[in-house]
Amino acid sequence: YPSEFLMQKITEDNQIPLHVNVSASLQYVAGLKGNALIDFFHNNIAEVENEELRHLMWSSVLFYKAPDVEVMACVLLSTKAIYFLLDDSLIRAREHQSDFWTQENSDCENSSFHLSCCFVLKLNDLQSVNVGLFDQYFRITGHSADHIVTCLTRDSYNTHTFIQQLMAVLSLLARTPSPEPVDKDFYSEFGNKNTGKMDNYELIHSSRVRFIYPNEEEIGDLAFLVAEKMDGLTNLQSLNILLYVLAFQVNHVEGSASNCNLLQPKTLILTSSDLFLFDEDYISYPLPEFAKEPPKKDKYQLADGRRIRDLDRVLMGYQTYPQALTFVFDDVQNQDLMQNLTLDHFGE
């Protein structure tokens, strides 16, 4: 430690997504390579002398206590903990909730010294990991509301890689083994005898951390919800969800300093007949065990929905990833003109 392969890998992974603006402190971290990155971790972040950095990832994160603030973070996985190096915007957003985030740093404001805060989740406190639909995000749950974080990778490869690395690190933890399970058949293992309903697919790691994956019913529930938003025009049996992807809706803000584009997180769902944008709650569901009441918002809230038959053209940008798509719809106040003509000419 550190091996040549590890240094090469974390150097390659240490890249901030192009569409994100971050604070100077995080830009400094993103500029580190190889040994400098390893030294930075041990000198500034690591809490124990003998812990090893195993994986690095840049991702948007959401906290259970601040569900409306998505913030960019450098996520560092070591053999002892998961560290989230956070952008300054979270400190401002959480001022009303915790004294920790509001420490006076006035001495540093006008100097070249940039401060960043680091949220630490010890691996020993980790209880479960919920993987989102199509591996677009995952939620890490500890023992309290302060220890629930969702990483919005928006990328199945990054999610899969992090989960694999996390499982490998958890295997090194010395925890007392669970009692040997009694052999169960498939139905008693995964089904609830009272309701007959299938539970989510769950893998219990040797460290006793639960990895929970969505099952087919979650897609079924989503299809039902989408059909409901389509005013019952579609037969649920024939409704297929072709694409589910976490994306951004681009709103151009004129009159600002640089006519900037504002990115709003949205869940895009494509069916055989419609295109939908949803505001999705990525942090509150499924409900944590200590939750006293359901969240204030539904998991999916419809933001926009258009029919594919009204799609006139799709404009593609030439920039590198992330790719920008513009959908141009030719719908006159959502009216079906042919239907009205038929009624006018052939109706009684």
From TrEMBL:
GO terms for biological process: Golgi organization; lysosome localization; regulation of protein localization. Keywords: Cytoplasm. Transmembrane segments: none annotated. The keyword Nucleus does not apply. GO terms for cellular component: endosome membrane. Residues 241-347 form the Nischarin C-terminal PH domain. It is found in: Cytoplasm. Its main location: cytoplasm. GO terms for molecular function: kinesin binding. Residues 114-178 form the PLEKHM2 PH domain. This is NISCH protein.
